[in-house]
Task: inverse folding
């Protein structure tokens, strides 16, 4: 019939990432034409400065989703870590850098709680992290009595959030280190390779000798620790630590990961895809605030940019999911038809 | 007895909480404030019935808060445009069912995980509502509050509607074949299919019902005040999921009763008033809620582990 359908996972992913690059290019052109000052050095570095926290969460969420899990607690974890950080610096008078490391450790500890419940008690990640989503945020609110916030951090620390190093926002360098580290872990080590194996077939991985529980645990601990880091960076940027830090960030991170072509069922996806998904979201968020000449429902686009980008993000996620599911269903159907017509050869993935 | 172990445990905990309140803060049980508190919990109870069905069929719906807000605004606008209250109620339920149907199609027929689908629809409806209403309070015309009745009569209507629904749904889940379909689909969708049940249709139906119930819950909330807030459903998903899980609905599907959900709802709903009446700071509520969810799932996990051995 038609050309041989070798639906290798690699070619699919290559295609997905190409599509994302095209989406990003489309966004850039659109916002450059419709908006004001989108493609200026200042604005582009602004885009990245303001979305580093979500980028960090998304990159660290990737291994979790690759194992077939999910972590809804990272946004709340940011709130808790931000509050703990503020208390350590303001209340205990600790050096902010030491307190930052301690906040990252606290995040790792919180991730450990998730990991313990998920792997040792075999509970569904969704409900465990929904519980800790509420617990961590609740602890943050309780510690601050619902209203207190911490500020007055030394300027040497605030520089992490507001200064440039070698022409790029300071926090971008931290992000690049973390993202490269996680990319290396996931794509260049046997350990990281196991994330996808676990997500593809957890029981099969166990028979193959992979320590499934240990490796899955580490994915959650990593996600928690990176959430702690994101909290520290957010505090450095805003100059204030509050219990409401990172509300809703888990959703944005998951959206970036899913847009990036990581299967929500686990087993396939790349860190580069996540990064592209994140950039597409960040450009959408910022680009809409640049459009002040056009109106929607009697408001300029810029004035309702937050709601509009939220709405578009939701729709984008829905359509990415639906398209993913449809292509998968088509591929399965094709494979079935082929294996029926040519029962001697196996057309499945090589 | 052991079959309803969780329900009995929660009932005991609730009884203990009530008893200690009766002893230490007797004014907690003053008739009018007590009834008002109960009435204000009825919308969440109606939504919790829906979420329990969704969880029993081994799915989850975290978009119900957004659906609730959307339905409340739709009902409010319908009523404000001068149409009778009945039309507003139908509009809210229909809008809820339509939103539920979208979730249902994506989950049941495209096989997508419900958590991600409803996460996406949650943010979509929430932001669409913000864009549409810009956070404005909506004033309702006369004759909407308490269905145009006096406050005690209105409260009676709200409470009895919610309880009638609960009794009906609990009976249907136990005695009607559609109710058993939901349990069967949640226990093992493939086995249900082989037994001649259409698990896709069942899942789809459950999501549509969930949406409709969110619409009804929004109406029951709407009639309690002269205004509607466009964010009135915020946090409802967590509240109802917590009630269901605490009440013994297994998150792995196929197990749980609506009576347990009622008990879980009442237990959690009384945490905050109890904190206030015992002169404890109320900002611990969310942390306690999270802790209770985790305790409930850990208890489930330990229990199923024991069964395996």
Result:
């Amino acid at each position: 019939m038609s050309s041989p359908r070798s639906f290798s996972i690699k070619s699919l992913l290559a295609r997905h990432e190409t599509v994302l690059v095209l989406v990003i290019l489309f966004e850039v052109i659109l916002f450059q034409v419709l908006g004001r000052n989108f493609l200026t050095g200042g604005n582009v570095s602004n885009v990245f400065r303001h979305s580093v926290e979500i980028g960090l969460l998304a990159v660290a969420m990737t291994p979790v989703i690759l194992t077939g899990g999910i972590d809804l607690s990272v946004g709340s974890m940011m709130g808790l870590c931000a509050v703990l950080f503020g208390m350590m610096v303001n209340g205990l008078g600790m050096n902010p850098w030491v307190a930052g490391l301690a906040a990252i450790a606290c995040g790792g500890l919180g991730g450990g709680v998730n990991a313990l419940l998920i792997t040792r008690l075999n509970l569904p990640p969704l409900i465990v992290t929904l519980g800790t989503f509420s617990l961590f945020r609740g602890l943050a609110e309780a510690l601050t009595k619902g209203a207190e916030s911490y500020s007055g951090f030394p300027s040497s620390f605030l520089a992490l959030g507001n200064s440039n190093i070698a022409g790029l926002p300071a926090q971008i360098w931290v992000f690049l280190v973390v993202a490269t580290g996680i990319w290396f872990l996931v794509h260049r080590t046997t350990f990281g390779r196991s994330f996808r194996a676990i997500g593809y077939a957890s029981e099969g991985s166990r028979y193959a000798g992979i320590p499934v529980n240990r490796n899955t645990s580490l994915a959650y601990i990593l996600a928690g620790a990176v959430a702690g880091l994101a909290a520290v960076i957010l505090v450095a940027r805003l100059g204030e630590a509050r219990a409401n830090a990172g509300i809703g960030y888990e959703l944005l991170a998951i959206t970036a990961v899913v847009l990036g072509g990581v299967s929500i069922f686990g087993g396939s996806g790349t860190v580069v895809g996540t990064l592209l998904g994140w950039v597409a979201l960040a450009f959408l968020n910022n680009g809409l605030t640049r459009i002040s000449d056009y109106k929607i429902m009697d408001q300029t686009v810029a004035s309702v940019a937050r709601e509009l980008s939220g709405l578009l993000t939701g729709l984008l996620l829905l359509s990415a999911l639906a398209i993913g599911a449809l292509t998968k269903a088509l591929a399965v159907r094709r494979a079935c038809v082929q294996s029926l017509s040519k029962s001697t050869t196996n057309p499945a993935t090589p | 007895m052991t079959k309803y172990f969780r329900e009995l445990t929660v009932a005991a905990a609730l009884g203990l909480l009530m008893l200690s309140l009766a002893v230490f803060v007797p004014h907690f049980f003053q008739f009018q404030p007590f009834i008002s508190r109960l009435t204000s919990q009825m919308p969440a109870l109606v939504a919790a019935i829906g979420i329990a069905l969704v969880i029993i069929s081994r799915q989850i719906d975290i978009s119900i808060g957004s659906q609730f807000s959307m339905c409340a605004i739709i009902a409010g606008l319908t009523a404000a445009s001068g149409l009778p209250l009945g039309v507003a109620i139908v509009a809210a339920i229909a809008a809820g069912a339509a939103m539920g149907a979208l979730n249902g199609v994506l989950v049941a027929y495209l096989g997508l995980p419900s958590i991600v689908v409803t996460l996406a629809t949650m943010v979509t409806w929430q932001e669409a509502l913000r864009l549409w209403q810009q956070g404005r309070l909506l004033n309702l015309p006369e004759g909407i509050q308490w269905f145009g009745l006096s406050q005690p009569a209105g409260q009676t209507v709200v409470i009895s509607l919610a309880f009638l629904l609960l009794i009906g749904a609990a009976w249907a889940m136990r005695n009607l074949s559609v109710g058993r379909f939901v349990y069967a689909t949640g226990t093992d969708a493939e086995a249900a299919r082989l037994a001649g049940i259409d698990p896709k249709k069942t899942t789809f139906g459950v999501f549509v019902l969930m949406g409709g119930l969110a619409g009804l819950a929004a109406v029951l909330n709407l009639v309690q005040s002269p205004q509607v807030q466009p964010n009135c459903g915020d946090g409802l998903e967590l509240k109802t999921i917590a009630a269901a899980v605490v009440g013994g609905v297994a998150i792995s599907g196929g197990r749980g009763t609506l009576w347990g959900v009622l008990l879980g709802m009442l237990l959690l709903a009384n945490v905050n008033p109890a904190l206030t009446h015992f002169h404890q700071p109320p900002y611990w509520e969310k942390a306690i809620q999270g802790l209770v969810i985790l305790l409930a799932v850990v208890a489930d996990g330990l229990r199923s582990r024991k069964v395996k051995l």
